[in-house]
Amino acid sequence: MQKDLKNNIPNFLIVGAAKSGTTTVSYYLERHDEVFMATPKEPKHFSYNYAKYTGPGDVAFTQKKATKTLKDYFKLFDKSQKFKCIGEASVDNLYYHDKVIPDIKKHLGDPKIIILLRHPVDRAISAYSHLVRDDRENLTFEEALEIENSRLEKGYEFIWGYKQCGFYHDQVKSYIDSFSNVKICFFEDLVSSPQETINEITDFLSISRIPIDKDLRLNISGKPKNKIINSLISRDTILRRSLARLVGKDLAIRIKSTIQKNNLEKIEISSQLKADLNACFLEDYKKLEELLDEDLAHWVKKY
Question: Does the structure show a pLDDT above 50 at 5?
Fold first, then answer.
């Protein structure tokens, strides 16, 4: 079954990378008058069949929430007719690039592609901290890196690939080679120049520019100071749903962000471990620089 490519299906995708600002970009696009974003933010339809979801929390946090059939995937966009841009943000599509791209092309044609990249070491630590926050990861970062490959071989979902997800060159090249409009943005620019970065994305989508809140932080990672508070605001609980109904979705998101900011603390990683991990990516940096014609010396030198 292939739906009519002209009518209310995604004409742009945010495909990754995870923990690189995709939630923030999705947040602003969802509030744009000309944009329809899927709910949930990450339907994960195209990648659903490529993970066994054997890691702690993989079923509850990912598999159960995935949009499993093509019919249900298209249903997510039933109310998108009046919007110029229709999109979703399944960030695992970058990691599973070689598997999902043929299906994306078959069912969506040639959508615009948005990719956000982040320093691979910082991204890895953030992904690790994300799983610590969600009470899924109980190893140290160093221990987790040592058994990463075996976890992935056992069918843990992609987010457990702290290091593997950071080899961007082949992932990005697959999209550049397969689609006619691909926009690359960097997390570091989103942090240092958020308005300018969002402007670049809205320009890429050929829609009007929108003002942003430079102080808003979403999907924060870290070690919870209070696990009960973290569980109440991080998971899809009755309390969260009730709060959203009571104060509205936007204010509920801001309240959650504020609580997370105060309840999560940064996980410290040794300088030596960060340097050792950074060394693993040096060859990939070179290839990515050539592919994007982008100077990544600041990535090389950071650790």
Answer: no
Using a cut of 0.90, tell me whether the model's pTM lies above it. Answer: yes
Place of tokens 């610590």: 132
CB of 55 closer than 8 Å to CB of 160: yes
List the domain boundaries for the chain: 12-222+266-302
> What is the Cα Rg of the chain in Å?
19
Is residue 276 predicted with pLDDT exceeding 90? yes
d(CA 92, CA 106): 18
Give the model's pLDDT for residue 216. 81
- From the CB of residue 241, how many other CB atoms can be counted at a distance below 10 Å? 11
Type of residue numbered 16: G
Yes or no: domain 12-222+266-302 corresponds to CATH 3.40.50.300:
yes
